[in-house]
Automatic annotation (TrEMBL):
GO biological process: base-excision repair, AP site formation
Residues that coordinate or bind [4Fe-4S] cluster: C187, C194, C197, C203
Organism (species): Candidatus Methylumidiphilus alinenensis
PANTHER family, per database record: A/G-SPECIFIC ADENINE GLYCOSYLASE/ENDONUCLEASE III, ENDONUCLEASE III
SMART domains: ENDO3c, FES, HhH1
Catalytic activity: 2'-deoxyribonucleotide-(2'-deoxyribose 5'-phosphate)-2'-deoxyribonucleotide-DNA = a 3'-end 2'-deoxyribonucleotide-(2,3-dehydro-2,3-deoxyribose 5'-phosphate)-DNA + a 5'-end 5'-phospho-2'-deoxyribonucleoside-DNA + H(+)
HAMAP family given in the database record: Nth (MF_00942)
Segments forming domain HhH-GPD: 38-185
Protein name per its UniProtKB record: Endonuclease III
EC number: 4.2.99.18
Cofactor annotation remark: Binds 1 [4Fe-4S] cluster.
Gene3D superfamilies, A to Z: Helix-hairpin-Helix base-excision DNA repair enzymes (C-terminal), Hypothetical protein, domain 2
């Protein structure tokens, strides 16, 4: 896919999704960090259900740390892998208090030093909480990038590097959420909704559906 086609593609997505943002509910960088850690192998809907009960009780690193592992588990046990997630969230809360005055840092290196925070999570926080033009490649972005031909790659790192290189500058900040939302609601995994897709004519997917 050439640069002109990519620009057209992102222009159209931006027009179709005028306010692209995360579907996780949060009001501070710390709440977002907790929600993103909880969202691994879980749905945003499931996470929002749990955090709706958790955040009114504890929504700072201090308050979460004081809940303790068992106390936190009570609030998040509806979410998959809640045991290891509780352990990571308590430990990252401790480290935030110890190293960062309880605040979420805004550098990749410091974020990735926290338990349960890998490159993908760090990218989400940098982009969504701190307005940095990073792209976290999840399953939706990986699928859309390969299917459309925007940034084909064999693994998430390859796709991320290509997106970083090829996404037009003016769309860099929103590309992450544009691609996720497009993948979640239109370019879905089993049977993409090509018939109602705003970029169908630009997309290089060979097996387009007619729905």
């Amino acid at each position: 896919m050439n640069a002109d086609k990519r620009r057209q593609l992102f222009d159209r997505l931006a027009q179709a999704i005028p306010d692209p943002s995360t579907e996780l509910n949060y009001s501070t960088p710390f709440e977002l960090l907790v929600a993103v850690v909880l969202s691994a192998q879980a749905t945003d809907k499931g996470v929002n259900k749990a955090t709706a009960k958790l955040f009114p009780v504890a929504n700072t690193s201090q308050a979460i740390f004081l809940l303790g592992e068992e106390g936190l588990k009570e609030h998040i046990k509806t979410i998959g892998l809640y045991n290891s997630k509780a352990k990571n969230i308590i430990e990252l809360s401790r480290l935030l208090l110890e190293r960062h005055g309880g605040e979420v840092p805004n550098t990749r290196e410091e974020l990735e030093a926290l338990p349960g925070v890998g490159r993908k999570t760090a990218n989400v926080i940098l982009n969504t909480a701190f307005g940095q033009p990073t792209i976290a490649v999840d399953t939706h972005i990986f699928r859309v990038s390969n299917r459309t031909g925007i940034a084909p790659g064999k693994n998430v790192t390859e796709v991320e590097k290509k997106l970083d290189r090829h996404v037009p500058k003016e769309h860099k900040q929103d590309a992450h959420h544009l691609l996720i939302l497009h993948g979640r609601y239109t370019c879905i995994a089993r049977k993409p909704r090509c018939g109602s897709c705003v970029i169908a004519d630009l997309c290089e997917y060979a097996d387009k559906t007619e729905n």
